[in-house]
Structure formats: structure tokens, C-alpha cells
């Protein structure tokens, strides 16, 4: 049996996109690879994370594993200014009411760090095995 191609994991698939892309602050495990022009990322090809989704009663939990390495990425809030304008409609990214976008809370509603928000949808999830109630 042949080994799966590493080109199918992570953001490496955007390397051949016709329009330019900008990616930053991502974490790549196992066979996932960064976009060719990404410079602010963390890659640990030896770490194989586990992802489990479980229902417990009316609640859903997400369990995943993170390595315990000290990841030192410098991230910023995602904002209207940072994202600029979309190429085709030439419109800014903004909230539904037209106000400027500033993603300063995570998926669970927790306040993100102003000086260096965590990568991904959860602010400071920790390391090792992490279990979060997603709804």
C-alpha cells in the first residue's frame, strides 16, 4: 500500500491558486503542510493529533490533542483592516451591520489575548488532551 501524498493536507493546496493568498498563525501536525508563502506557522510532522466528537445527553464535546511544545507564534486580531478588501467584489470584510470586523472572542465566547491571540478557534486551549463542550 502506498503512503498518502502530503499534498492533500494542510494549506499546501493553495500553492497553485490563481489568485494570491495570505495565511498566518497556523499550526500543522502530522502530514499537514503550510502554504508556500506562509512564514508565521508551527509545524510538527511527528505529532499525530486525535480528534473525537462525542454526544453526551444534549451536549456535544470536542476532544483533541495538542503537543506540549512551546509554540511561539505572533498572532494579531483578525480585523477589517488586516483582511483588506475581497478581490472580486472589492468590498471590505465587516460585520452584518456594516461595522468594522474585530474577532476578539473565540468560538466559545472567551476573550482573546490582545497582545497575542491563540491560533485556531479556541483561546489558550492548553496542551495534551483537551476536551471542550462545543454546544
Can you put this structure into words, describing what you see?
The protein has 1 helix and 7 strands. The protein has one helix spanning 80-83, and strands at residues 26-29, 41-44, 51-56, 59-66, 78-79, 102-103, 128-133. With 135 residues, the protein is mostly beta strands. The strands form 3 sheets. Strands 3-4-7 form a 3-stranded antiparallel sheet, with no helix packed on it. Strands 1-2 form a two-stranded parallel sheet. It is globular, with a radius of gyration of 17 Å. The chain starts with 25 loop residues before the first strand and ends with a strand.
Helices and strands in order:
Blueprint: E1 26-29, E2 41-44, E3 51-56, E4 59-66, E5 78-79, H1 80-83, E6 102-103, E7 128-133
Parallel strand pairs: 1-2
Antiparallel strand pairs: 3-4, 4-7, 5-6
Order of helices and strands: EEEEEHEE
How much strand content do the residues show? 15-25%
Radius of gyration, whole Å: 17 Å
- Summed up, the domain count is 2
Mean pLDDT: 91
Strands in their spatial order, largest beta sheet? 3-4-7
Amino acid at each position: 500500500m502506498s503512503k498518502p501524498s502530503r499534498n492533500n493536507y494542510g494549506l499546501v493546496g493553495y500553492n497553485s491558486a490563481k489568485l494570491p493568498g495570505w495565511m498566518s498563525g497556523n499550526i500543522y501536525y502530522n502530514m499537514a503542510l503550510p502554504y508556500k508563502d506562509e512564514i508565521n506557522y508551527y509545524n510538527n510532522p511527528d505529532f499525530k493529533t486525535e480528534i473525537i466528537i462525542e454526544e453526551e445527553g444534549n451536549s456535544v464535546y470536542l476532544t483533541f490533542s495538542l503537543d506540549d511544545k512551546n509554540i511561539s507564534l505572533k498572532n494579531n486580531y483578525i480585523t477589517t483592516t488586516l483582511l483588506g478588501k475581497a478581490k472580486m467584489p472589492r468590498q471590505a470584510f465587516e460585520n452584518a451591520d456594516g461595522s468594522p470586523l474585530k474577532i476578539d472572542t473565540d468560538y466559545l465566547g472567551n476573550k482573546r489575548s490582545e497582545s497575542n491571540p491563540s491560533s485556531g478557534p479556541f483561546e489558550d486551549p492548553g496542551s495534551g488532551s483537551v476536551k471542550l463542550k462545543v454546544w
